[in-house]
Write a structure and sequence with these properties.
Length: about 280
């Protein structure tokens, strides 16, 4: 028995359908080529991916697209190899597919959104996002959902459609650093110049704030006058965006301690109550 006869050997027969050895060999070759493509792609990406924040995130997105495309082509070729008439199957189940499509339209919307996200690169792995009240770092982007790691250490699964149809704040899309604001209320009898110096020194001495003039400055501004307080704003830049809440808390603690040490008081809301004495006469 030669090779041609072996490949043409029938393993299974059902009515007019016949499964031959050659079909299984072809499927094995398709899966092997698909495996090689995915392995080579991953090896190239791992080699080119540096410690650079943005380059690695974009390469991971490209790897996901190649993975989905490779499997789509492989499955299509396998169906053709098995001589399965996909058109006949789809036509015979039209009514079922219509009902199924209505029920899962949100899922398809999320899948399409995932494709756009991966192609455009607007959201990448390690990006810090704020979706509604959820603040977290992207740890995984799938075709239908994106996984965020919050500051509490919990994993939140967000449908990809949310990133397309709603407003999403990406704190690290173009740059690795971001600016944050701490408003500070001081009394009117405060030495504003001293308070400004304290705010600047506190922010400048923190290990995670950027105070280099060549990069991002720390800014102190007087923004408003209220009936019982002067409003100062401490604006600082940091590249530790994900832990910015903890940085702000640490700065507030130090501001409070330094203000107390220098006898700078925070104002209390004051209300003047006038009591009018009315003499009732009968």
């Amino acid at each position: 028995m030669n090779l041609e006869e072996v490949l043409d050997y029938s393993l299974f027969r059902f009515f007019k359908y016949e499964l031959k050895v050659g079909m299984l060999v072809a499927i094995a070759v398709i899966l092997f080529i698909n495996y090689l493509i995915l392995r080579i792609t991953k090896a190239i990406i791992d080699r080119k991916a540096s410690e650079d924040y943005y380059t690695r995130g974009r390469l991971i997105s490209i790897n996901l697209l190649v993975k989905y495309l490779a499997w789509t082509i492989s499955i299509s070729l396998i169906l053709v190899t098995l001589k399965i008439n996909v058109t006949f199957i789809l036509a015979g189940s039209t009514a079922l597919l219509v009902g199924f499509g209505i029920g899962v339209q949100e899922i398809f919307k999320d899948i399409v959104s995932g494709i756009f996200i991966l192609m455009e690169g607007t959201i990448k792995v390690k990006d810090v996002l704020q979706v509604d009240d959820t603040f977290g770092r992207v740890v995984n982007i799938k075709l239908r959902t994106t996984e965020l790691l919050t500051r509490d250490g919990t994993h939140v699964i967000v449908p990809n459609g949310k990133f397309i149809t709603e407003n999403v704040k990406n704190w690290s899309h173009h740059e690795k650093v971001a600016r944050f604001v701490i408003p500070v209320r001081v009394a009117y009898d405060t030495d504003v110049n001293l308070a400004t110096k304290i705010l600047f020194d506190v922010a400048n001495q923190h290990e995670f704030t950027i105070s280099n003039d060549e990069e991002r400055p720390i800014v102190i501004r007087m923004t408003d006058f209220e009936p019982d307080a002067i409003i100062l704003e401490l604006k600082f830049w940091t590249d530790h965006v994900f832990t910015a809440g903890r940085i702000r808390s640490q700065l507030r603690y130090e501001i409070y301690n330094q203000f107390k040490k220098n006898n700078i008081k925070f104002p209390y809301p004051q209300r003047a109550i006038h009591i009018k004495n009315q003499n009732n006469t009968s």
